Amino acid sequence: MEKSFEEIIRAIGENPERDGLRDTPKRAAKAFQFLNKGYAQTLDEVVNGALFESDNSEMVIVRDVELYSLCEHHLLPFIGKCHVAYLPTGRVLGLSKIARIVDMYARRLQIQENLTLQIAEAIEKVTGAAGVAVVIEAKHLCMMMRGVEKQNSLMKSSVMLGAFRENPATRQEFLALIR
Questions:
Q1: Annotated catalytic, 140?
Q2: Known catalytic residue: 83?
Q3: Helix, strand, or coil here: 102?
Q4: Which of 73, 130, 138, 164 is buried deepest, with most CB atoms within 10 A?
Q5: In the beta sheet, which residues pair with residue 137?
Q6: pLDDT tens for residues 85-137?
Q7: What is the sign, positive or negative, of the torsion defined by CA atoms of 62, 64, 67, 73?
């Protein structure tokens, strides 16, 4: 990967041997591996058994989980926040595990629509919840720095599973609580 970054630097007309760029291929390779560390993780490892018995069957919401991902089309970042809700059925997930699940899928080459679905399906699989809702709001640098160059656009995507899809009142409660 380091060699590839060196070739990219040369291809844009720069000298990878000049002072400021001498270690850039190594740093860029290390950064790219970190930004895509989700490929080295599994759902079981991330959750690590953090499911706890609970009599609660009311909505659990985690709002404003920041996320950083790379657009699979241009390898440019998209940055935003994720809101997750689920309806427990006897077990609740450790709070930090929701953020870790978001990170695991965000740290892969992605499009936002797929990321939203992957998070929702993972929460459903792990918890056996009666319903799961995920909303992501993100700014895409591929749209801000190149192409149409729109600085203030924000993409929102949502996935509703189970009771959130079937029951409009449950969906509306969730959407009102994340506003």
A1: yes
A2: no
A3: helix
A4: 164
A5: 81, 156
A6: 999 999 999 999 999 999 999 999 999 999 999 999 999 999 999 999 999 99
A7: positive
| Bridge partners for 92 per DSSP | 52
Confidence of residue 148 (pLDDT cuts 50, 70, 90): very high
DSSP-derived 3-state class of residue 160: strand
Q: Is the pTM of this model over 0.90?
A: yes
> Among the CATH numbers 3.40.50.2300, 3.40.630.190, 1.20.120.230, 3.30.1130.10, which is that of 40-178?
3.30.1130.10
- Give the number of other CB atoms < 10 A from CB of residue 168: 9
Report how far residue 172's alpha carbon sits from residue 109's, in angstroms, rounded to the nearest whole number. 31
**What would the two tokens of residue 28 be?**
């860029």
Helix (H, G, I), strand (E, B) or coil at 168: helix
Catalytic residue (one of 2, 121, 137, 142): 142
| 82: annotated active-site residue | no
Q: Where are the domains of the chain?
A: 2-35, 40-178
**Which of 6, 71, 82, 118 is an active site residue?**
71
Which member of 82, 110, 124, 140 is catalytic?
Answer: 140
Residue of 83, 112, 118, 124 marked catalytic:
112
